Amino acid sequence: MMAHEVVVHTKITRGPSTRSVCIGIDDGMISAIEKNLDGDRVFHFDDFLAIPGGVDIHTHMRDPGMTDKEDFFTGTKSAAFGGTTTILDMPNTKPPVTNLLAIREKLDLVKSKANIDFGLFGQLGDIDDIPGLARFAIGFKLYMSDTTGAQAITKSLEHLLNSDHLAGKVVTVHAEDPRMFEGKDNSNLHRHNQVRSIKAEFMALKRILSIETPVKLNLAHLTTLESADLARANKSTYEVTPHHLLLHDASKIGTFGKVNPPLRKRSLMNRLFDDLATGRAIIASDHAPHTLEEKEVDFENAPSGLPGVETRVPLMMALAKKGILKHSAVQDMCCTLPAELFNLRKGKIEVGYDADLAFFDLDNMVEIDSEKLHSKCGWTPFEGHDAIFPAGVMLRGKMIVRGGELAIEKTGEFLK
Length: 416
Ligand code: DOR
Ligand code: ZN
What we know:
Elements: E1 4-14, E2 17-26, E3 29-34, E4 39-52, E5 54-59, H1 72-81, E6 84-89, H2 100-110, E7 117-123, H3 130-134, E8 139-143, H4 157-160, E9 170-174, H5 189-195, H6 198-209, E10 216-219, H7 225-233, E11 237-240, H8 242-246, H9 266-276, E12 282-283, H10 292-295, H11 312-321, H12 327-341, E13 357-360, E14 366-367, E15 386-387, E16 392-395, E17 398-402, E18 405-406
Zinc ion binds at residues 58, 60, 90, 286, 288.
């Protein structure tokens, strides 16, 4: 038997069952999965569960322009420690990624800082900028309303979404209809939810889904079961965030829970779990860090957004451990479905896929502690929540996280 470059002894889930396997890796890709394999290098994670490296299709790493909140090095490091090996970064950086020059400059700046693989979104604005953006962007972002750091689109949506250069591409939509926002007294999480209401979300979704377009519409951060039902009825993909599943408008976290779209009522939050049973949701973090200083002001003046790239998979692994979600569903929602949407050779433990793996000791459930996280922002809205962090993380066959350390830095590659 020919030896593989790397062999990992571990456990994987297949449907409801878990079994012990050897994963053979050559050229950074999974080349065999067998009971026994020989390897030139052998890693032992025999009693750990391996899942595909997480794919987070919605992050704001703040580079360039807002590196006091996060930068590409710290953001991708934070992702790696949470078992995520691929991120797709949003375009509301400074300057915003609205044209060829901006995406080129962003790529030049961030590529040497990337600890995991990454793709970049372009922001839809002027139709003439789409062909240039399309050369490098993995997908496009469309803002239907203003939100922290981004302005709503003012052009005709119909016209833009029928640009020839967008056909077949993913357009991720931030769906909130600003005409439905009610009042301005934005004094606490409860009021924030009333102002940017579930109706404003639902009406924006109806509007965007009524447009005939050859693009693949992906609906970001849906907060209710009704929104998800609508997405599924229209055969659109959609994202659900951990914060909309685990935090609500009466959570005692003040400005640290201020986010757009807002945290909803506890009863609605609980019903969002019913959607996960359909197996269609993509769990994406919408990692949007702001500094402590920026958040420690009165509610009205605090920016919206919260970090989550490092806690996304660990929170879901804890829910699986408790029997609230199935392990196979967690892997589908955090890894496989998001990779499929963007045609990435990632998100599955199968021959021919990138050897991106995260290894979990399922008995090692901990309470999230912001001091132990790696984002530059230094806080988390999930303080004290149960989570299972990976003991090791592999990117294309290389152990990038091991023994609580970033073992290999800056090996991330650009995906387009
Ligand atoms: O709360 C939010 N913060 N929502 C967004 O859409 C943008 C994000 C940010 O970039 O801070
Ligand atoms: Zn976002």
